[in-house]
Input
Amino acid sequence: MSAEPRRIELCQACDVAIGSSLRVEAEGLVLAVFNVAGEFLVTDDACTHGPGSLSEGELEGEVVECNFHGGRFNVRTGEVVEPPCMVPVKTYPAVVERGRVFVEVSE
Output
């Protein structure tokens, strides 16, 4: 039997301008919150290839370029768009309610 997802508040929606990102630490997770044309997408902040922080990378549409080795990920799917990264980054379902951004995490 699977547990209900746990909801974690990350930030205010106004904290992340369109086309930008924000690093958030919450309940043991280190996440990157992206605002893509008004839609909030959330991934792990750590690049899967090295010590880069995806929230510090450059966001173009749905693709973020890691600030360390230049690998690129689709922030909607987590898939690798351009090497040297080979392993997808984990994504989280985001929900916006009353101006706040939450993720749902399965236990």
